[in-house]
Amino acid sequence: MTNNDVLKKLRVALKLRDDDIVEILKLVDFKVSKSELGAFFRKEDHPNYMECGDQILRNFLNGLVIYYRGTRDNPKDTNTTLPRPKKSAATKPSQKPRFKEQQKRKIDHDITSVKYKNKKKS
């Protein structure tokens, strides 16, 4: 997996736009234009593709830490800045069963073989 792949996956997972990534890199005093970012996100066979170096990825990760946590001297409140994962429906015991699940319970699964009128004889 290349640095470009890591950068792409983080961008998608954190729902970041190009403006956000430029802002994150500015937090660590690293200037990158939107067109350079676009070159990192292109396919490898594209003529304007650029390989993402270790320095860019390292600065992005350091900036990401500052973006979400803040600095040591000025920490951010983690309850408001970090996205919380949604609780799944399976963890709530008081939730009513879904309609489809109720219908599946009502179906008689012990069906004997039935002769059909339009079935082709082989």
UniProtKB/TrEMBL annotation:
InterPro entries: YehS-like (IPR009921). Signal peptide: none annotated. Residues 70-122 are annotated as: Disordered. Residues 98-112 have a biased composition (Basic and acidic residues). PANTHER family: CYTOPLASMIC PROTEIN, CYTOPLASMIC PROTEIN-RELATED. This is DUF1456 family protein.
